[in-house]
Amino acid sequence: MIVARNRLLDNLRAALQRQSVVALTGPRQCGKTTLARQLLDPSASTWFDLEDPRTRALFDEPMTLLEPIEGLVVIDEVQRVPELFSLIRVLVDRRPSPARFLLLGSASGELLRQSSESLAGRIEHVRMGGFALDETGPESAEALWRRGGFPQALLAPDEEASIHWRRSFIDTIVERDLPQWGVRVSSTAMRRFWTMVAHYHGQVWNNADPARALGVSEPTVRSYLDLLTDALVLRQLQPWHANLRKRQVKSPKVYVRDTGLLHELLGIEDQSGLLHHPKLGASWEGFAIEQVLATEVHTEAAFWATHQGAELDLLLRRQGRLFGVECKRVDAPRMTPSMRIALEDLELERIAVIYPGPRRYRIADRIEAVPLSELAQPGQLFESPTP
User: Fold this and answer.
1) How confident is the model over 15-74, as pLDDT tens digits?
2) What is the pTM of this model?
3) Angstrom distance (rounded) from CA 248 to CA 305
4) Using DSSP, how many helices (H) and how many strands (E) does the chain show?
5) Which DSSP helix (H) or strand (E) runs through 101?
6) Number of structural domains found in the chain
7) Is the separation of the CB atoms in 76 and 31 below 8 Å?
8) DSSP H or E run through 71
9) Taking Cα atoms as reference points, which of 175, 209, 187, 199 lies closest to residue 267?
10) Residue 65: CATH number of its domain
11) Are 169 and 27 contacting, i.e. CB atoms less than 8 angstroms apart?
12) Are 227 and 178 in contact (CB under 8 A)?
């Protein structure tokens, strides 16, 4: 399988043209370093990997090290040395600024907090995940869904090797990464919690049940959820609050962002196990949502649901307009009451119903069925309706 990450590379180059500092964030081992290598050779003197103790030792005198540098500087795992952010601010405020900084990091929440405090107005964030359909091609959709988008999981020589890699990845997060970030939670408790979240995948989150099961408080459970969200392995899709008279759901939906990790946490080992699992529909919904978020331009993403039962899987805002997305693993999606209510109450431009079939067709006025495969062409989801 040949994978090209042209969309991300173009976004990264454009960001570096606009700003003196760009942060490329994504979960560990999703390909951040590989992508950055296309901009700068890692053997260059201006590439710094802060996971290497020898490199960290160079930063005992960071100003002396960085001040003379011109051109592109890459600092990998930048969250390991948080005091660098204030120093970088001083360096990029020079006029003219001789250097541009590309910062790579895996702990998104902490990185965002640190950079927003020290580099406000000076930094642009580019976010990435595992491979998406526009990078692998639509013919790889089944494998991408089953194994997930992490390069070593998707490109493993066989299913056993892919499962082994995903299992090791989960162990690394809970046993090494979280403790390095100062998290004082046992790896056993965190792994058990992550498995609980997998069973909630695609559902509105409720702190109470996991708190009872783990014997901890609801605020503690909430902190666990935020930790794994910061590590970019969970997604909390927030509810959309419209000014309507209907009572609306106010808690987030939770998703394991990578379906390969989801399937490992659920004990699914092959295609047959996936197709017969109770979370089949939720898994496919989460997969489709991640593909949309990766390939469709938007400024805000949410879900919408009311206590009367109307709901919409995904709501995208772009250029001040609202677009809806439904994900249906059925042969031929049809109009539903929820679609009609969402279209009218939220004043949506259009609704795209993503399904696994081969043909794009009109369901109703401003509502279209769109094959999942069309997400391999970014920007095509809300094209003009077919006749």
Assistant:
1) 999 999 999 999 989 999 999 999 999 899 999 999 899 999 999 899 999 999 999 999
2) 0.92
3) 6
4) 18, 14
5) strand 99-105
6) 2
7) no
8) strand 71-76
9) 199
10) 3.40.50.300
11) no
12) yes
